[in-house]
Each structure stands twice: as C-alpha cells, then as structure tokens.
Amino acid sequence: MVVTAHSNPTGNNMLRFILRRLGTLLITMLVLSILIFILSDVMPIEPALMILGRESTPEARAALTEQLGLNKPLPERYVAWISRFIQGDWGESYRMGVEVLPLVQRRFTNSLTLAMMAAAIIVPVSLLLGIIAGLNESRWPDRVISIGSLISISIPDFVVGLVLIVLFSWGLRLLPGDSSLRGDTVNLMEHWQKLVLPAITASVVLIGYIARVTRVSMIEVMDSPYIRTAILKGLPQRTVILRHALRNALIAPVAVVTTQLAWLVGGLIVIERLFNYPGIGSLFADAALRNDLPMIQASAMIAITLVVLSQGLADVIYALLNPRIRFG
Amino acid sequence: MTVLDIRHLNVSYVSSRGIAQAVRDLSLTIQPSETYGLVGESGCGKSTVALAIMRYLPRRTRLDGQILFQDTDIATAPPAVLGQLRGNRIAMVYQDPQSSLNPVLTIEKQLVEVITAHEGATGEDARRRVIEMLEQVRMPDPAYVLQRYPHQLSGGMQQRVVIAMALLLRPDLVVMDEPTTGLDVTIEAGVLDLLNDLRREFKMAILFISHNLGVIARICDRVGVMYAGELIEEAPVRQLFDRPHHPYTTGLLRCVPQAISRHTSGALYSIPGRVPPLTALPRGCTFAARCAFAEPGCTQGAPQLESVAAGHAARCFRWRTVIEQPAAVPVPQPPSTPAKSGTSNRQALLTVSNLRVYFTQLMGLLGLARSRRIRVIDDVSFSLEPQRTLGIVGESGCGKSTIAGAVAGLKPVTSGRIDFGGSDFTRPIARRSRAALRQMQMVFQNSDSSLNPRHTVEKTLRRPLRCFNIVPRGHERAHIIGLLKAVNLDETYLDRRPRQLSGGEKQRVAIARAFAGEPQLILCDEPISSLDVSVQAAVLNLLQQLQRERRVALMFIAHDLNVVRYLSDEVAVIYLGKICEIGPAEAIFQPPYHPYTEALVSAIPVIHAGAQPHAIRLEGSVPSPANPPSGCRFHTRCPRKIGSICEQQEPLGQDAGDSHIIYCHIPLTELRAVQTQTVAQHSN
After folding, report:
1. What pLDDT shows up at residue B343?
2. Which of chain B's residues have a Cβ under 8 Å away from the Cβ of A4?
3. Which of A3-17, B167-181, B256-270 is least confident?
4. Which of A171, A231, B184, B394: disulfide with B398, CB 3.0–4.6 Å?
5. With an 8 Å Cβ cutoff, are B114 and A233 in contact?
6. How far is CA A114 from the centre of its chain?
7. Please, what is the average pLDDT of chain B?
8. CA angle B207-B213-B214, nearest 5°?
9. Measured at the alpha carbon of residue B388, what is the angle toward residues B385 and B394, in degrees to the nearest 5?
10. Are residues A152 and A259 in the same domain?
11. Could you read off the pLDDT of A205-226 as tens digits, one per residue?
C-alpha cells in the first residue's frame, strides 16, 4: 500500500517553512517600499520650499534640490533612498529639524511597550471569555459574555478612555489620567501606572472582538465530528476540551490577534492623544498633517514592517497549530 | 445473553418548526457476535438510533423507552457510566473518517488515549497494543502510520484507523454508521472484507447502518428496514432479500439496477412520492401514500409489527397479498419504440482525439521557484454517436469529471482536439458561439449548488429559452410548463425556489433546464449519486425517456458501475487520466476485461445470493496524477501484473471485437481464460 511520501516530519520541516515565509515577507516589503516611494513622489510636496520657507529665493531652492539629489530620475532616487534607509540613515525631519531614526525609535519603543501591556491583557482575557461562551452556547454564561462583548465593541475607544479617566483618576484617584513622559522614553518599572489606563482602553474593543471570534470558532469545533469521536471514546470532558477542541478552536482567533497586534502598535492615535502618551501613532499623524516627507516615509515603512511581521508571526503560529499547513 | 435490547425507543427532536419524531416505538435486539443491519433511505431515523445508543443526541431531544446494554439502561445512565461504556464496551465507526479524526493530533495520540482513558496504560505498553491492533486491521507499516496526521493518510487507511480505534478495547458492541459510504467502490470492498474477517475474529456484536442494500447483504446476519422512523420489517438477511413482506422493502430491492439489467430490457422500478416529513406524519400507515398495495383501510389505523414467519416480522396490513401477488406492483414496460442500438448511423456526434488536460501547480516562493504539471487527462480518445449514451467510470481522482469539463469548455485543453457536430469545439466556453453552447448542456452532481437559490423554477427555466431564442416571448410560460411536465412536475412548481424542492425534484429541474435549449448532447456528471435509491431510479428513467423523445446523446459519468452499465451503450473505463478499456456496454463487463475493470466489477456489493462476485481486490488508492507510474499506470495496483514490461512500456490497445479495446499487456486469450476461471470458481 502506498503511503503518501512526506519529508521528515521533525523540526527540519518547520525551519524550512519559516525560512520560506521569511523570503516571501522580504519580497512583500520590497514591493511595498517601491510603492511608498512612488506615492510620496507623487505627493505635491516641494521639499526645498518646506525646508527653506516661503521667503527663500528660487535659486536657493534649486540649489538645495540639486544638493538633496531630488532632480535625479525616480529609480535612481529610490535605490539611493532604500540603501540609505537600510543602513539606518532615515534622513532629517523637514519640520522638526531632527534626525528621524532616533525619534522614531524612541516613540516606537513607547508604543511597543504599551501594545505589549495591552496584549498581555487582551489575549488571555478574550480567549478565555470566548472559550467559556463557546462551551456554554446559548446558556447564561454565553449570553452574558456575548452581550458584554457586543457592548464593548460598540463603544468608541475615546469614550471608554474618558470614562476610565473620570472613574479611576478623578474619582478614585488610583491611577494617573495623564500619561505624558518626561524625557519621552518609557520605563516599564517606573511608568507602569501611566500605562494601565491606556492599555485597558485599548483592550476593551479588542477583547470583545476576539472573544466573539473565539466563541464562534469554539462552537464550530465542539460541533465537529472529531469532537463527537473524542466524546464517544469515553474521554473525560477535560481531555476532550483541552486536547481535542482547544488547539483547533484557537486557529481562527490567532489570525485575528496577530493582525490586530500591528494595529495596537501603530493605530492607537486617539488613545495616545487622549492620555497624552508619546507614542508613534501621534508622531505619524503629525507628520502626515505637516507634509513631513522623511517622517511619512519612515512611518509608512514602520507600519508595513509591523503588518508584514505580524502576518508572518500569524503564519508560523498557524502552522504550529495546524499540521495540515506544515505537511501540506 | 443479549448484548443490546432496545425496547420501545422513541426519539424526537424539538425545534421551533415543531417536533420531529425521528424514531418511533422501535424495538430490536442484537445477540453476541451477531451483525444486525439497519437499512432505509435518508431521513428514516437510522442514524438517530445509532446516536441514541451512544446517548449522543442534541440537547433539546426527547428520549423515551429503554436501551438495555447488558445490565445498563443507556437511556437513563448517568454521565459517569456513559463515560465508562463509550469507547470501551460500546464503540462507534463513523461515515466520514477524515472528519472523524482530529486533524491536529497524530494517529498515535488519538489511539493511545483510548487505552489511557479506560485502563490507565500509557507509554510503550499502550503503544505496543495500538500497533498490534493496527496490524489486525491489516494496516501496512503501523509504526510509520502512528507518526502521521489524518490528512496524510488515504481514505481507506483513515477508515482502518477509525476501526482500529473502535476495536482497541475489544468492545462487546460496535455501532457502524455508514462506514463505507463515501469511499470508492474498490476501497469499500476492502473495508467490507476486513469487517467480515474481524467480526469472526473478535466475536463482537455489530449494529451496521447503511442505505446500500448490497453492502448490507454482504455483511449482515439480520436486517431491520426503517421507514419514517419506524421499523417496518425485520428478518434474517437472506430471507429479507428473497422473500420481502413489506411493499417498501420490495420496492427498495427493485429500485437497484442489477448486474444483469440493461436499459434495453426495460425501465427501472421506482417508488413514487417521498418520505413524509417527520414533523407531520400521516395517519395510519406512513407508507400508504406511496404504496401500490394500499387500500382505504391502510390510512385508518396504524399497522403493528406482526410476525410473518420464524424470526421475520413486517409492519403491513396486507403482507399476505404482497407475497402472494407480487404482480400487483406494476412492472415497468420496456420502451415501446425499439431501442436505439442498431439504428445508429455511424456518423459520430462528438469526437475527442488525444485529449490532454494538464494543470500546473505552482510551488515554492510565490510560485517562482518551480511548478509541476499534473496530468489529469493524458491522451484520451473516444467518440459518441447521436442519440447514444457513453458511460464513463473510474475511481475518484481518475479524471472523469475533467473529461466532461473539457468537452463543455470549462477546463482548458492542453492539447488534442474536440470535434462536435462537425465543428471544432476545442476552444474554452467563453470563445464558443451561442449556437454552439446551445448544442451542449450539462447536469451536475449537486443540484443544490447548481441551481440559483434565489431564482424560482420558472426563472431558472426561462433563462435558456431566452438565451437561445427557443420560443417567442409570449409563449415562454406554456413552454416552461411543457418542460416541467416532461420531467414529471407540474405548473404548481413554477413559483418555487430550490429550497422548497426535494433532492429528486431539484435534479428534475436541473434536467429540465439542460433539455430546455434542445441540445444534441447532455453531459451528466454524477447526476444521481447524491439521491436516494428510490429517487435515483426515477431520475434514471426520466433521463432515458427524455433521451428517446428528444433525440439527444448522453455522456454519463458515474462511479456506480451498475448504473453505468444499465444506462450506457458504450462505456469507457478511466484510470489515472487514461482509458484502460472502452467498448460496448454489454462487452465491457464480461471477460475478457482489463484487470482494473475486473477489480471494479468484483468490488460491487450485490444483493442476490449466489451472485457474490469473485474477489479481486485492489491495494491502496489511486496514485497522484502529478507523478503517475511509468509504463502501464495501473501496474502498481494490478493483481494480474505479469512483469517488468508492465512497468516499462505503455500497453497498446488490443481489439476484442466489436470495437471493444483493452489496453493491457496480457494477451486477450490469456485474460479471457484466467478471468472466466475466476468467475467459475466463485459461482459454485
């Protein structure tokens, strides 16, 4: 009898899978970087005018354009830009007159810290709620969780933030409502109190969303023929759920969690503004409003890297959970 | 001591649409080492009985009566007791092994945990027992299989795993719910052989559920027939098949096309009507509305299960009449017009020459690195004359449907030529003219997904009329009603949508749509395989009748050999994208035949005693068309392989007369001799 031939099912296979995915990710990023460069070239921004101001003479502006290499053909400028970018030379902000890289680095670290703190709340809470709801379909725990998550999704994040500030900062005086940082750099040990309220605010929306996805996934799995098999083998309920159901049920929410991670890092503009937290989201928003080209390019590249990396992470976790992907 | 004793079991599903009485007053017993078959059409309550025995029913289900397993009443047993019985003393084998195994756990984990849960054994000891059991279910290389995930095994191997899982702790009762449905006929035959051996070795009791009478005949000792939630007849297996007492059983048996039957000898018997909805059962006998023997009294009181002979009971008021005057059931007449054979003019309608359909599969980084060609159809030639039927058979994955797809222009042709009605049809459907499209229509397997759920029957049938300008606008409605009448429906169906139709009715509408454009050729891709037997027969009759009246040719693709043999004038047997045998239907299924055809024929489960086919079994499943075997593609599984020539050279066609061609290296005389011998050996 023929057994379908497959390569060695040990870690070797997984390593090859990861390497292949990394290759795909690099190509994706390269293509996107070209797109970003072309788009920023199309934008009606004249860098020399922005740097030198309206009172500058056309001659001076032309000279600066020449000096910046902006009159060269597009492919040449792209190659110059991307090679400098990879080497860590991200240029100078037109508006703030500072190096882009250290600023972005600092802000990025701040955002990442906040995101990690939020994720540490979101992932366990939402998965747990979703699983409990799914296992108790249409009984009271499910109804409570389902309604609760629907409410949490429907309330805008700034409303949640405001309520939390009023409650915990002004009312109970437990936690600070202002999360601004002196020196612009976050230190978890020192500033954890300042992170709690923004992290919870960011969590509320996502917990509802991820819990709902997990719930549906869990219900589907519990209804599947292989769970019937597990139950009719006479396995204890604990084994049925922990060993047979959980891993299958987590496949769907993992995809959601990892794609939302990118949003947690870069997309918290409203929350950062509300709490006055120096994250990268507000930096990007400012750059976009002020046509600060090097800043826009840097932020777009950061956003892409985040999305692509989290997608890659999702693929890897997905493959770990699902052998059908690993041994296609 | 009785293993299972079900007494007055009632199961009903409660939902917002009402109470569906899935099982009503069912009593049956199973003795040690007995195999009890439960047979009936879909929706008759068979599976509900199985799940009730396992006490695995939806939350809102009402369960009354007793299910006595040895000394325990399963109907009332507490969860702890159920946990001890399940998987240990009562085990189950399921219909679809792929979805019944957990996709993320290795086979080893899924097998070992049964032992761990019930006996606490772990590690090497449990592993050794699992390997022993896999050997007993004839699994090749068990140690290797243990490390696999379910999706890495073929369907036949998956089912062996599920069977091994059920037998691990040597249960007293195994419940098997359609364990071979969905498997290819060759795989099914292997699994049935295995079950027959195992039930002797293990001396266990089996409740075997199936809709397939041939499968039941092959494996069971006693049989119960279910209809609309009731047991309507129960008898030892041979007695049931030889002397059925209930009109429904009689009907079911007559619906199945037999090995000997051909369309030229008459239409198939079919049971009119359909199973009544379980939420609104009729008064009196539930079968009366479809019964040829029914008289007014039948709808008054409900018949009881009555003993008609030793060990034989039937639920019918009129069973005496049924056995005395079987002629009361109308016998279908042979077609009045002489059959089409002989009248054929030798001008082919469709000629397919050297057809190749290769799919390219991209692999590696963004598909840039490499690609591989999958040779789905590789050098296939055949022709079809007007008004005749070509049957195409083969296991799944052989490329049957791809041939139809290529002819219809739905699959791109890699090379070769398709001529239809004198013009070139090799081009894809988008580049065929309206007139060309009209000439060729298709009926698909799944009428659920091939009818637009939002369109009424009228709208569905009006489209081809408009597209092809069949009738002037004013006359459309009358024409559509005519079409409906032709498929034995009437104008009350005009405003219905697919969800308001039964499976058989949907397929009738699909057939009406195919005939609406007045085509010359209809491609039927497994048009009846999702239908119940009684409905299958009616749809087959309809296809034949329309073919005769409307003078179309049919290309009929099916995996059911008896159906193909019944309906076709010519048959092509396909294996891995190549024709291995082609010729007149009456010649194909007798020696000499290709060893692959021989295996297919021998795998068909048959109903009648004495007609048990000689056992030629194929090992394994169809190899991947991405990397087909060299030489004769069948050599890896061929039971009659003669040597290295089979591996090295592609066989040429040998003419067995009357344009019957066999692609095999074995000389025809030798094939005929050895195959006739095998048939003789097994028929005495």
Report:
1. 46
2. 152-154, 624
3. A3-17
4. B394
5. yes
6. 11
7. 87
8. 105
9. 100
10. yes
11. 899 999 999 999 999 999 999 9
Contacts of B343 (CB under 8 A, 6+ apart): none
Nearest to A122 by CA among A38, A205, A64: A205
At B610, the pLDDT band (50, 70, 90 cuts) reads low
Distance from C-alpha of B168 to C-alpha of B375, rounded to nearest angstrom: 41
Q: Tell whether A221 is covered by a domain.
A: yes
Q: Show which of A87, A120, A145 is a domain's final residue.
A: A87
The verdict on A121 and A240 lying in the same domain is: yes
CB-nearest partner of A234 from B101, B118, B162: B118
Give the domain-ending residue among A87, A113, A135.
A87
Per CATH, B4-220 and B350-570 having the same topology is answered yes
Measured at the CA of B364, the angle between CA B359 and CA B367, to 5 degrees, comes to 55
Alpha-carbon gap, residue A231 to B100, rounded angstroms: 11
Q: Is residue A327 part of a domain?
A: no
pLDDT at residue A305 tops 90 = no
Tell which B residues from 636 to 665 touch A, by Cβ distance under 8 Å.
636
Other Cβ atoms closer than 10 A to A35: 12
Q: Is residue A307 part of a domain?
A: no
| Residue A278 belongs to domain spanning | 102-289
Q: A9 in contact with B at a CB cutoff of 8 Å? A: yes
Question: Which residues of chain B does A236 touch, with a Cβ-Cβ cutoff of 8 Å?
Answer: 83, 117
In Å, the largest CA–CA distance within chain B is 80
Chain B CB within 8 Å of residue A11 CB: no
- Cβ-defined contact of A3 to B148 (cutoff 8 Å): yes
Which CATH number is correct for B4-220, 3.40.50.300, 3.75.10.10, 1.10.10.10, 2.40.50.140? 3.40.50.300
How many other CB atoms sit within 10 Å of the CB of residue A59? 8
DSSP state of A92: B
The structure tokens 């939402």 sit at A126
Domains contained in chain A, number: 2
Nearest Cα to B183, choosing from B214, B207, B157? B157
- Give dist(CA B14, CA B34) in Å, integer: 34
In a domain, A314, yes or no: no
What pLDDT is attached to residue B474? 85
State the pLDDT at residue B399. 86
Positive or negative, the CA dihedral B48, B52, B53, B54 is positive
Q: How confident is the model at residue A4 (pLDDT cuts 50, 70, 90)?
A: very low
Per-residue pLDDT at B344 exceeds 90: no
A3 pLDDT band, cuts 50/70/90, is very low
Of the candidates A1, A9, A20, the beta carbon closest to that of B147 is on: A9
Domain boundaries, chain B: 4-220, 240-259+271-328, 350-570, 590-683
Q: How many CB pairs under 8 A join A and B?
A: 106
Using the predicted structure, report yes or no on whether residue A48 has a pLDDT greater than 80.
no
| pLDDT interval class at B333 (50, 70, 90) | low
Chain B environment of A226 (Cβ under 8 Å)? 99-103
Return the pLDDT at B363. Answer: 58
Pairwise CA distance, residues B523 & B553, whole Å = 9
Take residue A68 and report the two structure tokens written for it: 């910046």
Tell me whether residues A322 and B104 touch, CB distance under 8 A: yes
* Crossing angle of helices B457-467 and B476-486, rounded to 10°: 110
Q: Is residue A21 located within the same domain as residue A148? A: no
What mean pLDDT is predicted for residues A183-210? 84
Q: Are B48 and B219 in contact (CB under 8 A)?
A: no
In Å, how far are A66, A70, A72 from A52, measured between CA atoms?
A: 14, 15, 20
Q: Same domain for A115 and A32?
A: no
Q: Give domain B350-570's CATH architecture.
A: 3-Layer(aba) Sandwich (3.40)
Are residues B411 and B403 in contact, defined by beta-carbon separation less than 8 angstroms? no
Interchain CB distance below 8 Å, A243 and B113: yes
